[in-house]
Amino acid sequence: LDAGRALLYQTARYVDIYKGLEDIERTRKLTDEEKAELKLYQKLASACTPLAKGMNSEYANLNAYDSIQVHGGSGYMLEYACQRLYRDARITSIYEGTTQLQTVAALPHITTGTYSQMLEELEAGEVAAEYESLKARTKAMDAKFNEAIEVVKAANNNEFTDLCCRHLYELAANCVMSQLLLRDATKSPELFDKSMKVYLNLAEAEVAKHYNFVKSVDVEAMESYRKA
Questions:
Q1: Fewer C-beta within 10 Å: the chain N or C terminus?
Q2: Is the separation of the CB atoms in 177 and 203 below 8 Å?
Q3: Residue among 177, 212, 181 nearest 196 (CA)
Q4: Cβ-based neighbours of 128, under 8 Å, separated by 6 or more
Q5: Domain containing 213: what range?
Q6: What is the domain count for the chain?
Q7: Alpha-carbon Rg of the chain, whole angstroms?
Q8: What is the CATH number of the domain that holds 176?
Q9: Alpha carbon distances (Å) from 64 to 23, 96, 102, 149
Q10: Chain segment 36-45, per-residue pLDDT in tens
Q11: Virtual torsion, Cα 150, 168, 49, 187, nearest 10 deg
């Protein structure tokens, strides 16, 4: 929840800034600096929106599924609220663009380096001394994300790119959310310390899974099989 909210609030911040600049543009001509800011924050909002929508939808499904499991048979019965929450969660990964469409919307930002630039800027931020080891772990995750991108781009194969699209999407999301949560934990450890440490363990495992998939695909064999 905290990781998803961190991403959601960051996305909302980007949207607020560029919408505010658009409102100003209706009353007067923007300066060159303001025009550059408008273009930048439109791009960042466009990049973060599919991450926020897709990942929070998937997390809602995961949490609702776990809630049913924790309640056992009772969670499945109409007398308990979690059965309704489970049904409500399921539609979130379908309406207003399925999670699959969110990955398609995010792909151009993956291949052109929008997320990599975001991560680089987040990495440059200061963290509390006790979080230096966590910062090193997040940077290692970011390095795997960037390496996976280079593997896909170097292959120059559309089918391989399509195959890896969801993996690259989740790599980007886990890396961005880890960096954002680390920033939040530095500012308010009383609220986010535990979430940061728990989520980072999950994110590392997810990053390793998706990175290993991208690295393990034999593109030449895949292409030969397709032609055959």
A1: C
A2: yes
A3: 181
A4: 185, 186, 189
A5: 2-227
A6: 1
A7: 20
A8: 1.20.120.470
A9: 39, 20, 21, 32
A10: 999 999 999 9
A11: -90
219, 155 Cβ separation under 8 angstroms: yes
Tokens coding 85: 């929450």
Q: Which residues contact 222 (CB under 8 A, 6 or more apart)?
A: 157, 159, 160, 163
- What are the tokens at 139? 């940077």
Distances from the Cα of 186 to the Cα of 34, 115, 127, 135, 191, angstroms = 30, 22, 6, 11, 10
Going by C-alpha positions, the residue among 40, 32, 34 that lies closest to residue 15 is 40
User: How far apart (Å, rounded) are the C-alpha atoms in residues 228 and 222?
Assistant: 10
Report which residue type is found at 121: E
> 115-141, pLDDT tens digit by residue?
999 999 999 999 999 999 999 999 999
pTM of this prediction exceeds 0.85: yes
Segment 1-4 long-range contacts (CB within 8 Å, at least 24 positions apart): 1/59, 1/63, 1/195, 2/181, 2/184, 2/192, 2/195, 2/196, 2/199, 3/59, 3/177, 3/178, 3/180, 3/181, 3/195, 3/199, 3/203, 4/52, 4/55, 4/56, 4/59, 4/177
